Amino acid sequence: MLGNNDELLGVDLGDVFARMMSDLPWDSLRAYVQANTQVLKACSAGGHRLDPKRRARVEKIVAREAEKTGYSQSMCSGVFAVWYPTHKSLHQALEDHFHSDEYKAYREQNELGEDDYVLADEKFDELFRVEDLDKWRTLLCFSPLKFTQAQADRILKDNHGSAELLERVNAMEAELAELRKRDSQQRGDADRAVEDARLRAAEANESRRDLREARTEIEALSKKLEVSQADNRRLRLLNDELEAKSKKIESGFEAELEKRAGRLRVDLARVQKELTDWQAKYEEQVVANRRLDEGIATAKKELLFAEKRTEQAEGDSERLTSFADLILGRLDWPKVGAQMKLTPMMRRQFNSLIRKLDYEEDNTLTIEATLPSFWDGLMGLERELINRIAQSNTLEVASGGVEEFWRALTDAFGDVRISLEARLVLLTMLQEIFYQVLEMEDLEESFLPLK
Predict the structure, then answer these.
(1) What pLDDT is stored for residue 364 in this prediction?
(2) pLDDT tens-digit profile of 264-297?
(3) So what's the pLDDT on residue 305?
(4) Is residue 451 very low, low, confident or very high in pLDDT (cuts 50, 70, 90)?
(5) How far is residue 450's CA from residue 327's CA, in Å, rounded to a whole number?
(6) What is the pLDDT of residue 365?
C-alpha cells in the first residue's frame, strides 16, 4: 500500500498542491493562513493584508512555504482538510463508504486499524472517474487514503480517458510550464520582497512599541474614564435634585407669568386702543399735511410771481433813478444859482452842492450818487444831532462835563440848520423843474431829449 507520505515517482507535488489551493474558496484559504502562524507571518510581512485581490500572492507564498517543508503532512494536511469538503460528490461518496457496514466488515476481514482507509479494487473501480483525475491525484498525494500500486499507476498513468480529457491535460501541462516559467521570473521579485519585508518588519516592531505605549496611555485614560464616570454619576444625582427644584420653581414662575400675562393683555388692549386713536390722528394729520403741501406749492408759485414783480420793480426803480438824474442833468445850475436869492449860509451849501456835480465828456451835468442818496446825506447831520441829544446824559460824562458837551454841539446845530435850508432850496428847485422847466409831452417819451 502507498500512503500520501510515500515517495511517488513522476508526480509534481508542487503542481498538485497549487491545484488544490486554487480550488479553495477565498474564505477557506484565508482561514488556513490565519491558523498557520508561520504562513501568516510570511503573508503579512511588509504590512500586507489578506485581501482577495492579492490571492495570487498569498497562494504563491503558501506554495513556497510548503515547498520549504518538502510538502510535509503537517503543512499540507490543513490545506487538504479545507479542500476535501469542497468537492461534495466525491466527498460524500467516500464518507458514505468509510462509514458503512460494508467497509467495517472489510476492515475486520483484512485486519485494518480504525485509522486505516483503503479502497478495494472493486470499490475503487466504482468510484473512480476520469473527469475527476485531478481530484484523485490530490487524494493520492495529500489524503490519509492508502492506494495499491495498481491504483496509483491508474491515477498517475491513466490511458483510458477520453481524448477530450487528454487534450485538457496537455493544455493544463502547457499552462503549468508557463506558470513555472513565470514563477522562476517572480522568484527574484519574491527575494526582493523578502528584503523589503525585513525592513517593514523593523517598522512593524517600531509600530508595536508605539502600540504598547498607546495601550499604556489607553489604560491611564481608562482609569480617568472610570473616575469621570463616578463623577458623572454624582453629577447626575445632583442634576436630579436640581431638576426637582427647578420644576417647583418653574410651576411658581408659570403662575406668576400667567398673572403678568393677564396684566399685559389688559395693557395691550389699552395700547391698541391708543394706537387706533393715534392712527386716526395720523391720517388726519396726513390730510392736513397734504393740504399744507398744496398751500406751500401755491405759496411758492406766488413767491416766484412776487420775486418776478420785485425784479420788475427794481428795474423800474433803476429806470426812475436814472430819470431823476436826467432831469437834474437838464438844469443850468450856475444860472439857477444866480436867479436864487440865497443867504450866505445857503450860498455855501449851494456851492457845496455844485461841487458834487461834474462835467462829463458830452458837457452834461450829473450827480455822483442817486437823488435819494444825496437827500439822505443831508439828513445824516440831523440824525446824528438828535442821537447825541437823546444820549446826552451819557455823553456829558464821557466828554468831561456838561459845558464841554454842549459847546461841541454848537457847530452841529448850525450845520443842521443849513441842511434844512438846503433841502428846502432843493424842494423848491424840484418843484420849479417839474412844473415850469419841463414840458409834459416830454414825459411821455422813453428818453428825455438833451438840451
Answers:
(1) 40
(2) 989 899 989 888 888 888 888 888 888 888 888 8
(3) 85
(4) very low
(5) 10
(6) 37
pLDDT tens digit sequence for 228-260: 888 888 888 888 888 888 888 888 888 888 888
Q: Which of 288, 364, 279, 287 is nearest to 325 (CA)?
A: 364
**What distance in Å separates the CA atoms of residue 291 and residue 293, rounded to the nearest whole number?**
5
- Biggest CA pair distance of the chain: 195
Contact between residue 365 and residue 331 where contact means Cβ atoms under 8 Å apart: yes
The conformation of residue 69, written as its DSSP 8-state character, comes to: T
Residue 421, C-beta contacts closer than 8 angstroms, at least 6 positions apart? 343, 345, 346, 349
318 near 371, Cβ under 8 Å?
Answer: no
**SS3 per-residue string spanning the chain:** CECCCCCCCCCCHHHHHHHHHHCCCHHHHHHHHHHCHHHHHHHHHHHCCCCHHHHHHHHHHHHHHHHHCCCCHHHHHHHHHHHHHHCHHHHHHHHHHHCCHHHHHHHHHCCCCCCCEECCHHHHHHHCCHHHHHHHHHHHHHCCEEECHHHHHHHHCCCCCCHHHHHHHHHHHHHHHHHHHHHHHHHHHHHHHHHHHHHHHHHHHHHHHHHHHHHHHHHHHHHHHHHHHHHHHHHHHHHHHHHHHHHHHHHHHHHHHHHHHHHHHHHHHHHHHHHHHHHHHHHHHHHHHHHHHHHHHHHHHHHHHHHHHHHHHHHHHHHHHHHHHHHHHCCCHHHHHHHCCCCHHHHHHHHHHHHCEEECCCCCEEECCCHHHHHHHHHHHHHHHHHHHHCHHHHHHHHCCHHHHHHHCHHHHHHHHHHHHHHHHHHHHHHHHHHHHCCHHHHHCCCCCCC
pLDDT of residue 160: 46
**189-212 pLDDT, tens digit each:** 766 776 777 788 778 788 788 888
